[in-house]
Amino acid sequence: MTVLPFRDHEAVTEAWQQLVHQGWGSNARALDPLEAKVLVDAVMDGDDDVARLLHGLGRRCAREDTPLEEVTSWVENLLTVLPKRARRGVDRLEVALSLAEGWASGTLERRHPPRNGVAPLGVLHVRLAQVYDECDALHLDPSNLYALVVIDAELAHLGPHASNAARTVMAESVLSTFAGGETVAAGNGGRVLVLSPRTTELASMVCRAVSRCEQSPVLAGTWVSGWVEPVARDRRHAAGHLDDLARCGR
After folding, report:
1. 3-state helix vs strand vs coil in the chain, percent to 5
2. CA gap 18, 41 in Å, rounded
3. Which end of the chain is more exposed for a tag (fewer CB within 10 A), N or C?
């Protein structure tokens, strides 16, 4: 295919979208125009964000059941319309790996839906990575925008059936409080974690979640607590920080 001599970002974005639509027709609607623009800007400017943006694209498309082969073809279309200067700066191996890793993460999310509305911890890891991708693309500090909420209970004294019932009550209490689309995941023991925007109401929402847990007869006499932790400013520390919070024992 002939390389088109476009130089400005808007023209490259338009040319890319046209190629995708020509090749994939109605399926190409999964390529979000804003997402396309952000990715083109990063590639054209040689930003370090490219790998993370491709990871996010792969993850989202997998969650929407778009085949990896199709998404890979879209990215190949982008490389086709890039000017030579920008194309020379692209590490094709890194592109392929980032896209595939993101797609694999999204597939995990899609195949393991939340139980009782509470997701596995791995889903929270994926969502947190997406937050960093979004903030990186917009040059924002995630620790100013998001926080991790921990709702904890001491369930060791309960038997298996009572413990499962207590976890269900905790999940329902947290989900009824954080009902705005926040990601809610299960930690170890009786711990529930929430990735939430940092708002002025966050502290009172934590108190409400704890209160709802304590009011349940299933949790009568059980110690319940809750607190807020800012997400790590540096994404290199994010996964370890989340894993530490998921463990019982603060």
Report:
1. 65, 10, 25
2. 17
3. N
